[in-house]
Amino acid sequence: MTLHALFRARAEESPEAEAVIFGQKRISYGALASEVDRVARGLHAHGVLEGDRVLGLAGNTPDVIALYLAVGKLGAVYVPVSSGFREREGRFVLRNAEPKLAVVEAALLGEFLSWTDGRGPDLVVLGADNARRRELPAGAARFEEIGLGVADVPAAPVSEEAGLLLCYTSGTTSTPKPVLHSQRSEVYNARTYSTAWDLGPGDRGIVSLPLAWVYGLSTTTAALLVSGGTVVLLDRFHPADVLDAIEEHAATAMWGTMSMYTKLLEVIKERGKADLGSLRVVANGGEPCPPPLVRNFEEHTGITLLGTYATSEARPIVLVRPGDEKAPEGSVGQLVPGAEIRLEGPDGGEVEIGEPGHALLRCPGLMTAYYGEPELTADRITPDGWLKTGDILRRDSAGHYFVVGRESDLIIRSGVNIAPAEVEFALMSHPEIAEAAVVGIPDQRSGEAVLAFVVAERGALPGEDEIRHFLAEQVAAYKVPQRFVFVDDLPRTERGKLDRIALRTRGEDLSPQG
């Protein structure tokens, strides 16, 4: 079974059902299937064969969905690239993936060409047809024209272990990590999420996450399409647009990060009201979710945010299911069928219930490898198939998991480990603090000092002594930051995650007090 075959089965079962809504466009399953066939014919005519890599550099558009499914139909590998990537990252992707062909949105063509030095892969330009009929580079084809008048191409009879998705995820390495997923992995991903969230025909899910991110492409879009639901696709996340789309389409599901829901709440407060009653599944993942922020959103909206935990390399792993009222505050959920977690202590043995440990993951959605990086693959995947994540989790006696933080984020002060998330959550429980981020910076006396960046609630500016006194009642004295820096906002990566590297860089220029 392949992801394309699952989608095709839905299209044949309900060809008139809506597959994608994008602005004023309403695309049925039958129409999307026909578009997938056209694109597959066009890619094949350009020489794309089983196992070849096809790069996609574009924003959110239904064409990207058709491209992904068409690449899968041919047994090739889709390589989504973030529109935020710049020359250094882009050149690495081209060297690593060695794509046979690149499909590039016209608005991003200049950036892409700067990666190639004129020696790039065959080029297809998406969205080039406009009033001025944009000039294309020599030899480039128009996405809207490929496959027209070409004989149909049958679906490739690939194995479940054949590659399907090659995505690039940031981390502690100097270049993006190339994560290769198989047909088996993507099918498991789509089916398991669809079942866990009880998605089906009639569901309309808001997808404002980038389709270049597995959270937007696989976790959400693919799960909706294999279940017969409708993808309500937005070109980007804007809280006002999301609220309008929820109300206009009576959306039943949406997915986001905590920072997205925080911005959504700000607009809801500005408007004074929002009709969110149609929502049944509101998943919250992709970054740490401080309980005070979750609680604030839920109290103002009456909506329960469903925690989830996975990685780009292994997914899904745990999640909170709709209607699971037994999930304790801060939990990211319980294991999904087929997934395993092992929590190890410093000695390599499993930790006791309730104790934090390094999370090792294993599931059918585990990546095949870091593509072209055998040493990195061997370092991160054990011989018996466990992925070493670098994440610190803990588990309660009922099997609920909680994210403590990242090993690389741990602050070691006078030989004692401090998890930034614990201090951040305590800070954000202060009524006058909207957001907080804690990092370690070099300190001659203690090895590392604890530095807190604080975003105050509007109109509020708590004093440092007040904050220290507040924290002293919640965390051990050695965890209380020595220095506080008040900022208007926190730096984030293009995917909305907290940019701790930028904060550490800024923090190293500051001398901690005390």
Radius of gyration: 23 Å
Task: List the strand order in the largest sheet.
Answer: 2-1-11-10-12-13-14-15-16
CATH architecture identity of the largest domain: 3-Layer(aba) Sandwich
How much of the sequence lies in strands comes to 15-25%
CATH homologous superfamily assignment of the largest domain? ANL, N-terminal domain
The overall average pLDDT, rounded, is: 92
Low-pLDDT stretches: none
Shape: globular
Q: Could you describe the largest sheet, including whether it forms a barrel?
A: 9 strands, mixed
Strand count: 26
What structural class should be given to the helix and strand makeup? alpha/beta
Number of domains: 3
Domain AMP-dependent synthetase/ligase: 7-371
Domain AMP-binding enzyme C-terminal: 422-497
Protein name: Long-chain-fatty-acid--CoA ligase LcfB
Family: Belongs to the ATP-dependent AMP-binding enzyme family.
Provide structural commentary.
This protein has 514 residues and is of the alpha/beta class. The chain is built from 14 helices and 26 strands. The protein folds into three domains: 164 residues, 3-Layer(aba) Sandwich (Rossmann fold); 170 residues, Rossmann fold, CATH 3.40.50; 98 residues, 2-Layer Sandwich (GMP Synthetase, Chain A, domain 3). 30% of the residues lie in helices and 25% in strands. It is globular, with a radius of gyration of 23 Å. It has a nine-stranded mixed beta sheet, sandwiched between helices.
List the defining traits of the structure above.
single chain, 514 residues, alpha/beta, Rossmann fold, GMP Synthetase, Chain A, domain 3, 9-stranded mixed β-sheet, 5-stranded parallel β-sheet, 14 helices, 26 strands, 30% helix, 25% strand
